[in-house]
């Protein structure tokens, strides 16, 4: 259910028809303000909301009544008051409904269901293959969302919304996946397809943007105003937060540093270019280096396996078991990761760089090698002050980011038509 007659989202805007200037808009605005205050500052009294928001008490009371009726807000115990009056406190009702965050990977789909405070209530994962094609993959994703939503205890509002992070260029306003080289998808109206089948609002964003939002709301980036989030998987994506807001660029495609050319004659990339950063610093790059070493006949415990089936977790495991080929493959990957991060630091001067990744690619060895390059290549003063950390949400960053997209819409002010 929409709690507002029209909804606006700074991070996923133009989702619905804008409200025109009228009484309804004023009410929607005020209701969003009240819900925001309860969500962020609850337990809080009606009087405190009135004081902090400047809305008169009658207005606050009537809006609170509607939010209570919708199940979004509940009354709790008694608050303290110097005058001896004990106002009833308000807090958000986490269990009012379910939100599902989805990470669409190149070969997997990860789903996390949460309440409206982003407490995880269920999760599931399924394997996919790009050869399955758009329709089949979307269908499996939708079915998984339905069965995950059905697996949790019933709630008043049921499934409130779905947020999806995808590995490619997304027009976040329309939810169209314009181009995903690793999935080989082009111009897929993912939001429309999913909304048709699910009947709830669906928000689609680039997976690195989703990861950045997830870490900003619930992970290592809480309270950080300027940060760069790196998603290192089969490819590399970057989510850029400037002054507390995700930076999308003109069309929504900002952050494709994975395709920044690092080596003009380097390995071929899925985008058609050569020597892109992600061909040298991604999971695939690390596996490629190990496979090359095996072909070169270098002694390694990996040789027991067919190189095509090698996973980055196995690479990391072999490395920690002392395998030199694995160590070199990961260290070389870390080196290139650091070269790119140094460029990002020089460009954006962030407070924080968060590296989200699969376990193997994000091992301490990789980050240590990256740090060396950052110190060597970053402008010293700038680079020396930047913290580079692993994603606090780990592999959940993108899916939790999807949940954040829905929450952002739920809590955001209605869009004003100009
Ligand atoms: Zn490329």
Topology diagram in text:
Elements: H1 23-41, E1 44-45, H2 46-53, H3 57-69, E2 73-78, E3 88-92, E4 98-104, E5 108-114, E6 120-127, H4 134-151, E7 159-166, E8 169-171, E9 176-180, E10 185-188, H5 190-198, E11 202-206, H6 207-218, E12 227-232, E13 236-242, E14 245-246, H7 277-281, H8 283-295, H9 312-320, H10 324-348, E15 352-357, H11 364-377, H12 380-385, E16 387-390, H13 397-411
Parallel strand pairs: 4-7, 7-11, 12-15, 15-16
Antiparallel strand pairs: 1-3, 2-3, 4-5, 5-6, 8-9, 9-10, 12-13, 13-14
The structure holds zinc ion.
Describe the model.
Helices cover 40% and strands 20% of the residues. By secondary structure, the protein is α/β, with parallel strands linked by helices. Strands 6-5-4-7-11 form a five-stranded mixed β-sheet. It is globular. About 3% of the residues have low confidence. Bound molecules: zinc ion. The site of zinc ion has 5 residues, from loops.
Q: CATH class of the largest domain, please?
A: Alpha Beta
Q: What does the overall shape look like?
A: globular
Largest sheet: 5 strands, mixed
Order of helices and strands: HEHHEEEEEHEEEEHEHEEEHHHHEHHEH
Side-by-side strand order of the widest sheet: 6-5-4-7-11
CATH architecture name of the largest domain: 2-Layer Sandwich
**What is the residue-averaged pLDDT?**
87
Q: What structural category do the secondary elements indicate?
A: alpha/beta
Give the cofactors and ligands. Answer: zinc ion
């Amino acid at each position: 259910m929409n709690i507002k007659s029209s909804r606006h989202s700074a991070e996923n805007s133009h989702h619905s028809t804008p409200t025109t200037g009228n009484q309804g808009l004023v009410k929607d605005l005020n209701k969003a303000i009240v819900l925001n205050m309860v969500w962020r500052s609850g337990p809080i009294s009606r009087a405190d909301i009135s004081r902090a928001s400047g809305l008169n008490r009658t207005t606050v009371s009537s809006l609170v009544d509607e939010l209570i009726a919708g199940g979004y807000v509940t009354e709790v115990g008694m608050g303290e008051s110097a005058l001896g009056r004990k106002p009833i406190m308000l807090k958000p009702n986490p269990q009012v409904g379910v939100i599902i965050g989805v990470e669409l990977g190149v070969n997997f789909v990860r789903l996390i269901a949460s309440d409206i405070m982003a407490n995880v209530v269920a999760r599931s994962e399924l394997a996919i293959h790009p050869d399955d094609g758009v329709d089949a993959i979307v269908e499996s994703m939708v079915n998984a969302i339905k069965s995950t939503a059905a697996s949790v205890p019933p709630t008043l509002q049921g499934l409130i919304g779905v947020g999806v992070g995808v590995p490619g260029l997304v027009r976040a306003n329309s939810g169209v996946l314009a181009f995903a080289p690793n999935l080989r998808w082009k111009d897929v109206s993912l939001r429309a397809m999913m909304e048709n089948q699910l009947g709830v609002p669906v928000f689609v964003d680039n997976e690195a943007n989703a990861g950045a939002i997830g870490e900003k709301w619930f992970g290592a980036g809480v309270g950080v105003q300027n940060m760069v989030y790196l998603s290192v998987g089969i490819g590399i994506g970057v989510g850029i937060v400037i002054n507390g807001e995700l930076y999308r660029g003109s069309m929504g495609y900002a952050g494709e540093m994975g395709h920044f050319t690092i080596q003009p004659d380097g390995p071929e990339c899925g985008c058609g270019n050569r020597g892109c950063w992600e061909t040298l610093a991604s999971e695939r790059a690390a596996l490629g280096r190990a496979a090359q070493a095996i072909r070169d006949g270098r002694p390694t415990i990996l040789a027991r396996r067919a190189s095509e089936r090698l996973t980055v977790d196995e690479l990391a495991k072999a490395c920690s078991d002392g395998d030199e080929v694995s160590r070199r493959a990961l260290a070389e990957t870390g080196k290139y990761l650091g070269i790119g991060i140094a460029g990002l630091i020089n460009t954006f001067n962030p407070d924080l760089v968060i590296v989200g990744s699969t376990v193997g690619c994000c091992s301490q060895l990789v980050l240590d090698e990256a740090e060396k390059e950052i110190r060597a290549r970053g402008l010293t003063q700038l680079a020396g002050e930047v913290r580079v950390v692993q994603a606090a949400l780990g592999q959940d960053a993108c899916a939790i980011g999807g949940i954040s997209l829905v929450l952002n819409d739920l809590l955001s002010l209605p869009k004003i038509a100009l």
